Amino acid sequence: MAFRNQCFLASVILLLEVSCCFGEQDLIYCEPDNCYDILGVQPTATTQEIRKAYRHLSKTLHPDVNKAKGAAETFRIIALANEILSNKDERAEYDYYLKHPEEAFYNKMRFYRRRYAPKTDARLVVFGFIAFVSVVQYFVKEMATERLEQANLNGASMKNKKKAKKSSKEVLAKLEAEVTEELARNIDIEGGYKNPTFRDLLFCKVVILPYTIATYLMWHGDWTYRHSIKSEPYSDDEKIYLISRQLGTSSEALKANIPAEELEEMIERECWVRANLDRFQEEQMMRKHPGAYKRYKRWVKKTQ
Question: pTM here?
Answer without folding.
Answer: 0.44
